[in-house]
Amino acid sequence: MKEQKLRYALTQPQQRVWLSEKLYPGTGMWNNAGTLKIKGELNYALLARAMNIFLQENESIRLRIGVDDNTPYQYISEYEPYKIDVLDFSDRGIDKLYEWDSMQSQAPMPLIESDLFYFAHVKLGDNEGGYFAKFHHLISDALSIVEFGNQTMSN
Description:
Elements: E1 8-9, H1 12-23, E2 31-39, H2 44-57, E3 63-68, E4 71-76, E5 85-88, H3 94-106, E6 117-125, E7 128-136, H4 142-154
Parallel strand pairs: 5-6
Antiparallel strand pairs: 1-4, 2-7, 3-4, 6-7
């Protein structure tokens, strides 16, 4: 028997974001995104572990949206290790990273029964890299991104 997930109504701010998404579908206007560049040799496996610890410890980032009778609700998805894309810009240069970053930041995110975040590792060379993080405003704000960066680097 499948376990019933606890459902919660959207908060007033989330309802405003939800309604705006319905008025302007297919845009990335509610994305919060950023890339953190790190100088020095990076252990990407360790970085992936640190990012997954963040996901495991922060249920609010694992919020998902469902719809029942045209009414949205939210629930917390179970933690599952997140597979992080690895993108190598070593031979393409920083301008190509910025171009990709801009496109990815503006790309709409699926809202229903989907992760409302996206992470990628970026390689710029042997001694420079970092990561890209994107969160939908239904689960985050600018401070959330700062906290994600702080907790990830602390982990």
